[in-house]
Design brief:
By secondary structure, this protein is mainly alpha-helical. Helices cover 46% and strands 7% of the residues. It has 5 helices and 3 strands, in the order αβαβααβα. Helix 1 (29-55) packs across helix 2. The model has no long low-confidence stretch (mean pLDDT 89).
């Protein structure tokens, strides 16, 4: 559970701390690396669930960007836990691209936002392939792990 300085959306618990739970004597470093990837997907599921609740319309696909999208295992697991397709664009660093687009729009280089949409192209897509019962069991275990991260800070801690 990566909550080294608190657990943020959708929990907002500053008293949470990172924990590694469920270890056995057979754990290897590869298991820890996989746990980091899975934690990323489960955290995303929590945020997407909150968004679906607030918005009232379930997510039908997730477009991703950033460095972690280069990890195909993570992208497939994300599709599995969200139960929606996950799509990675050709340009994975869209934050920088978005800043450039905003500047280009302001300077009149592009006439409108619609003209920018034609620049987006899919590089890869992952479809969900996880049994629903397995998905919900994993999510239940994830929520149990989230509970274990709270109440680590006492009043006399610095």
């Amino acid at each position: 559970m990566p909550a080294f300085s608190g657990l943020f959306a959708p929990h907002w618990r500053s008293d949470a701390r990172g924990v590694i739970a469920g270890l056995t004597g057979y754990i290897q470093k590869g298991h820890l690396a996989r746990a980091v990837l899975e934690a990323t997907a489960w955290q995303t599921r929590e945020v997407v669930d909150a968004m679906n609740t607030d918005y009232g319309v379930p997510l039908s696909a997730l477009r991703v960007d950033g460095g972690m999208t280069a990890n195909n295992l993570l992208m497939q697991f994300l599709a599995d836990v969200l139960d929606v397709p996950v799509v990675r664009p050709i340009v994975a660093e869209t934050v920088s691209l978005g800043a450039a687009y905003a500047a280009g729009l302001a300077a009149g280089f592009w006439p409108d936002v619609e003209s920018l949409r034609s620049n987006w192209h899919k590089a890869a897509e992952w479809s969900p392939d996880m049994d629903g019962q397995l998905r919900e069991k994993g999510y239940r275990k994830w929520r149990k792990a989230v509970e274990r991260t709270t109440d680590w800070i006492d009043e006399d801690d610095d």
